[in-house]
Amino acid sequence: MIQSFCDWLSSTALSLTIQTVRWIIPAVQTVHILCVSIVMSSMAMLDLRLLGVAGTNQAVSRMVSRFVPWVWGALPVLLTTGIILIIGEPSRELLNPYFRAKMAMLATVTVMTLFVQRKNAKDAGYWEARRAAAALIGLASLLLWVGILSAGRWIAYY
Ligand code: HEM
Predict the structure, then answer these.
(1) Do 13 and 129 touch, CB atoms closer than 8 A?
(2) Which residue, among 38, 42, 33, has the nearest Cα to 85 in the 3D structure?
(3) Do 152 and 81 meet the contact criterion of CB atoms below 8 Å apart?
């Protein structure tokens, strides 16, 4: 069923335009990668703070309010550029286990980041008072983001 959906999608006028206009895919991938760097640097700063290994001169609550908005700003651009790449090459993405793993990890870490932000919004001292939980969520988040980035790159090699 996914295969026939991919066949239909790749025969649409929009997909054919993305496939044939030479600059579209490289330009969209460039914007995608720029947003990847924003998300990865922001989340690395926050997760290393949650782990207690970097930025310890700043309160966790300050790091959350400083870095998480960048993630929420970049994710819609990543989603839009990702969808354009999917429309351009549906089979390459939708039938790809790396792509599916990437989306599953992204859904998980998005929920985790929302949870960190919500707890922080309710109580600015929440994560300072729970160092072990903060370290655990920081480590899991960091590993998931590295997994998302790696899976994103490996899509091309499946
Ligand atoms: C928000 C939803 C996202 C969607 C729908 C999406 C979709 C895609 C697609 C379709 C590709 C092209 C793969 C290919 O054909 O080679 C791609 C590449 C990639 N994505 Fe995403 N992506 C999303 C978010 C992210 C995030 C959050 C990261 C990392 C933090 C990421 C990292 C990458 C990387 C590293 C590549 C490879 C770029 C390249 O080699 O040129 N993506 N993504």
Answers:
(1) no
(2) 33
(3) no
- Residue 19: C-alpha distances to residues 2, 12, 78, 88, 103 (Å): 19, 11, 19, 5, 23
79 lines ligand 1 (CB under 6 A): yes
Is there a contact between 42 and 68 (Cβ–Cβ < 8 Å)? yes
The pLDDT value recorded for residue 128 is: 94
Answer whether 118 contacts ligand 1 (Cβ < 6 A): no
Q: pLDDT value at position 136?
A: 98
Pocket of ligand 1 contains residue 155 by CB under 6 Å: yes
The rounded distance, in Å, linking the Cα atoms of 108 and 50 is 18
Cβ-based neighbour number of residue 113 at 10 Å: 24
| Domain residue extents for the chain | 2-155
Cα–Cα distance for residue pair 6/3, rounded to 1 Å:
5
Is residue 141 within 8 Å of residue 64, measured between CB atoms? no
> pTM to 2 decimals?
0.93
Cα dihedral sign for 45, 144, 104, 34? positive
